[in-house]
Amino acid sequence: MTSPDTPTRGPARPGPYVIAGILIALAIIMPLLVPMYARWDPTLGAIPFFYWYQLLWVFLASGLLAIAYVIMRKEDRRRRAEVRRPASGQPGHPQARSGEDA
User: Going residue by residue through the chain (102 aa), what tens digit of pLDDT does each one get?
Assistant: First the structure.
């Protein structure tokens, strides 16, 4: 069992968090810009633009959130793997053990 002082994740890189935040912000902000799509034309069949644009954002937002989730999951796995990987010179590392047997 690990002690409370033992880190469970390595240092974070800001890039994946920024990208995921932008994707989530797009999914939230774009449907809120009502004046941008408050019009009748172009229609999709008999459905006015106002309605099919909102419906389109249901699918776009789910896709953007899925991409953000994959990015964050990949970053979390990288950070966890960085802690599990022993650094050279620490006990348990093959180079550190070579001098123990001699």
Answer: 556 777 787 787 899 999 999 999 999 999 999 999 898 999 889 999 999 999 999 999 999 999 999 999 999 999 888 888 766 555 554 544 444 444
Q: Which two tokens stand for residue 75?
A: 């970053």
Q: Do 58 and 28 form a contact (C-beta atoms < 8 A)?
A: no
Closest CA to 73 of 22, 26, 9: 9
Q: Is 33 helix (H, G, I), strand (E, B) or coil?
A: coil
Backbone angles phi, psi at 44, to 5 degrees: -115, 95
User: What's the full length of the chain, in residues?
Assistant: 102
CA–CA separation, 20 and 13 (whole Å): 12
The rounded distance, in Å, linking the Cα atoms of 87 and 83 is 9
And the tokens for 13? 């890189």
CB 26, CB 96: distance < 8 Å: no
Give CA–CA dist 72/20, Å, rounded: 7
